[in-house]
Each structure stands twice: as structure tokens, then as C-alpha cells.
Amino acid sequence: MFWKKKRLKEAAQHVEPKTIVDLYNQIKDNVDFIQFEHCGNHFSCWISFFKTLVDVDYVHRDVLSFLYEQDVDSLNDIQKRLPIEKILKTTDLSTIQYRLLKGYIIIQKNKSDAECLIIPMTNVEGRQIGEPKTETSVMGPKESFVESIDTNINLMRKRLPIPQFRIEEIRIGKISKTRVCTMYIRGIANDENVHTVRQRLRDLEVSDLTDTILLAQLIGDNSQSPFPQFIDSERPDRTATAIYEGQIAVFIDGSPNAIILPSSITKFFSSIDDYFLPWYLATAYRILRVAAVGLSTLSSAIYVALLTYHYQLIPENLLGPLIASRSLVPFDPATEALILEVMIELLREAGARLPTKVGQTMSIVGGIVIGTASVQAGMTSNVLLIIVSISALGSFITPNYRMATTIRFLRFPFILSAQLLGLLGIAFCLTLLLAHLLRLTSLGRPFLEPYYPLRVTDLMDSIFRAPSNYQTTRPLFLRPGDAAKRNRNRSTEKRGKPSRDIDES
Predict the structure, then answer these.
(1) Are residues 282 and 342 in the same domain?
(2) Strands, sheet with 116-120, edge to edge from the N-terminal-most edge strand
(3) Which domain covers residue 159, as residue numbers?
(4) Which tens digits make up the pLDDT trace of 291-314?
(5) How many angstroms separate the CA atoms of 144 and 237, rounded?
(6) Of the candidates 211, 236, 263, which is a domain's last residue?
């Protein structure tokens, strides 16, 4: 009987409050909830707040001292004369509940009155602006987003000081009521893209929302695809550049990343450093990244296919060392490759989860010790160890973390296909991968743009980066608005000419 009453009491506490008294009854057991009657010289009232969410110094200095010293006799007097912005008088219970749990203080004439004043006294605690952790760069700005959405808006406002810059806010989550902000430039961003983002955000029905990566999965065109359809960035400079081009950025309060949409596959292999280097060096590094991706995905699978089915394709000079290296290995090539690939993933996960200094040491020492021991014990061949190590390096060269994770995942189906059908299996797996990429879209735009469909103007900033004076138009696949057609976003074709000094001959 006791447990039944306890369950009924707990169930009653989860019911949505109907009056402000019900709200106070639900939260009164919290140790950080403060509620007291203030008896001033001229006016008495009830004050309620969470001391861990508000700045208590401001409460004593601005509110309580005002009530003691000023001659006020109603909530209207307080609202008019208290020198604090955004004081709200309301009877709406949902507004009172939300603001109370966000760091506002509640003032009532009587404890059970529905009408109250809501005064902002939020105590902002958070991480200071620091350097990017996942998108590091040798040159360029060193600021990164933080968990506070207001701070992130400030970082974007500094880089987009134009009246056409728009910030739209929506609250998502039946329980969390998370602030989600959409940023774009009116007249440059495509209206259809903006409308699609609005619609997808409004149609979301979730209980809580905590991070932009989760949001990207919820509003993506194909949530089952291993490929990310939106770029996530922690760099204000990259996000501002994308908005200038006509893309849209979405921020979530509590997340230190923004998602940029729509995006194409070439953007995942470009780094912010590419734009600080001469065009030919940036092009060389981008080609190196794409080659590394192909090497990372196919090298182990080709090794398995050649040794299992097509050993006649191996040159005679290389066939002898391969046979010698595998003479003591008890496993077939596919099993051997899978063991090493799983070992590499275990080391990577261990290094990522441990503290930074310990994780780096663990990855280096663990890779050397385990690799050497596995070769000496005859569990794997030294040739495959070299191939898998190069494959792992190729996956780490990708600038985007989520795309790098996808590339590491793709190695396993290719190895299994090579074991089943050899080079034919690799070709079949490549066909399925290409078919999937051809069908994939980002906010309704082709994911393989500018290669499919072919956009010659967009090739200027894809795998090949042309000189800045040739990149005179915004990406065509973004379908920029009328203002973008009248204004070029990058360097014009004209360059400044050096003028001679008066004393130069």
C-alpha cells in the first residue's frame, strides 16, 4: 500500500501544472529553488527563483535594494521604474515556467496570484572562446564557437555587419524547448532553401534536442546514409564565408558547432588553409586528400583480391616477398586484413577516449608494439601491416571528422566483397557506392555537384582550386537569389596595379 501511494505521488508530480501553485509544488523540493516573502517599507511581494541559474549579486543589488528604497505599491510601478530591460508582466503559465527554469526571477503580489513580473537575471556560465579543436589551421583566425548561442551570434554578427543578415529563432523539443537559430543573408540565400529549412525544423517532433549533429541527422535528406549531407563547423570564419556564398547556417544552444547547408561532397575535402595558400598548392593538397581517400578505401581490399583470386597480376619481383611474408600466417588474406583493420580501430578509439597526452602515447606506442609483435608471432604479414598503416593515414587526412569516419567504415564492405568475388566484387561494391552517391541529395540539391550534374563554373572551387580572380560567381548549385546575381562574392577580375614612386626611374 505504501509503494502504491508513492507511485501515485510520483505520477502526480509528472502531470503538467495547471496553476502557478501546482508549479511551485512540483519544484519546491529542489535544493536550489528559493522562494520568500519580501516585506519592504512600502510594498510586500513574493520572490521566486533558482539560485544556481540567476546572478544572486544582481538580485540583491538591483531588485531587493530597489524594493527597499523606492516608493512602489504595485507590479506596474516595478515594471515602469525598475531600470532593467525586458521585464515582462504575464499570466501565461507556460511562459512563467519556461522563464523560471531559464534563470529569470518571478515577483508576485501574493503567492497564489496568476499575474506576476518576470525579470531577466540569468547567470551565464560557460567556456571561454578558444581555438578550434577539430578544424585546426596553421594560418587564419583562431576563434571557435562555444556552447552559448548568444556568444556564437556575437561572433557571427562581427563577421556579417550587413542589414540583410537575418537570424530566425525557433524552439524545438517538447520538454527541452531548445533554442535553434537559422542564419542567412536575405537576397543572397535561395528562398526555397530557406523555406525548406524552416519547414523541416517546424515539423520536428522530439522531446529534447542537444546537439547540431543530432539535428543534422533529423533534418537530412537521407538519414540512413553513412555520408553526412551537411557540413558541421566550429569555425566562425568558415561559417561566415559559407553564408556570404548563399548557404544557411543552423545553431543550437548548448552546441559548439554550426551545420552548413546545403553542401556538396567536394566541400568535405577542402580545408580552411586552402584559401590562405597559392592556388596551385591548394589544388595539390586537395588532390592528395582525394587520392588518400581512394587509397584508404581500396588498398586493403585490392590486397585481399590479388592474393585470393588474381595472384597472376602481381609482378614476379613482388610475388616472392609476398609469399615469404605470408609463409607463417595461419589466416587467409581477408581474415588477416580484418584483424589488422579492427586493431587499428581499437587503437584509434582508445586514443580518442583517453586524456590527450595519454591518448597520443597510447596510439603511437600501442601501434608500434602490437604491429611488431603480430608480425613476429606470424599472425599477420609485414606487407599487409604497411598497407593497413598507409590506409589508416589516408583516412586521417580528411579535414571533416564525420566524413573521415565514413571512409574508415567503407573499408570493411570492400574487404568482404574482395574475399567473395575478387576484383569483380570490388567493382560491384564501387558501383553500389556510386549509385548511392548519385541519388544522394543535400537539402534537395545534388550531393555530387559540380561533377553530377556538371557545373563548369563550380569546378573553379572543387577538387581543383582556381586563382581567386577566376572565382567571380557564387556556387551555381546554391541557386543564389537576385542580390547575389547583382553582386559578386569573391575577387573581381580586376587587380590593383603597382604604381611607381616619385623617386623611381
Answers:
(1) yes
(2) 33-39, 44-50, 104-108, 116-120, 88-90
(3) 149-263
(4) 999 988 999 899 899 888 888 888
(5) 9
(6) 263
